[in-house]
Write a structure and sequence with these properties.
There is one protein chain. This protein is mainly α and 93 residues long. The chain contains 3 helices and no strands. It has helices at residues 2-10, 23-53, 59-92. Helix 2 runs antiparallel to helix 3 (59-92).
């Protein structure tokens, strides 16, 4: 009797199935994350532009605004590249 129950439990057909995350779900989640990161990078670009405008010619403030702009652009490029790479890899699976 115990042997019969053990065989039934080990049989993969009798195990309850659960919904695994599909490739589409993973792609959607990652795309949402990349959109959020891209939006934050764009927001940082706008803030850097405003800081540059309001720097009033002060070299330190201008340098900070330029650095912020460069880092935000790099972040935006990285987010776009990551999204393209993930979408390319998921399509190939």
């Amino acid at each position: 009797m115990i042997n019969y129950i053990a065989q039934g439990l080990l049989n993969a057909n009798n195990l309850p199935h659960h919904n695994d995350a599909t490739q589409d779900d993973i792609t959607k989640i990652l795309n949402i994350i990349f959109i959020i990161v891209g939006a934050l990078a764009f927001l940082m670009i706008v803030i850097a532009g405003l800081r540059y405008v309001f720097a009033q010619g002060e070299p330190n403030k201008i340098a900070e605004a330029k650095n912020m702009l460069i880092y935000a652009l790099i972040g935006l490029i990285i987010a776009a590249s990551a999204a393209a790479i993930v979408n390319f890899v998921v399509v190939r699976l």
